[in-house]
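Just wondering, does anyone understand what follows?

——
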Amino acid sequence: MSEEIIMYGTTWCPDCYRAKSFLKSRGISFKWIDIAVDPAATTEVERINKGNRSVPTIVFPDGSILVEPSNSELEKKLQSGT
């Protein structure tokens, strides 16, 4: 299991941009993986989302996953302790 937050997304995804900006504004570091250029990442996102390419897909160090989360969902997860 990773010790860091991993965010799968694409550069053209407005929700990905918003989620990245949200985490950055709170000083939260994360690993960004663009599924448009990483076939293995595309496969992982499809596995997580049962065949769908839903982004952003965010995987937390505790193994929990948020898919297309709102800022309030991200805030709630961060407050619960990633």
About this structure: The chain has a mean pLDDT of 95. The radius of gyration is 12 Å.
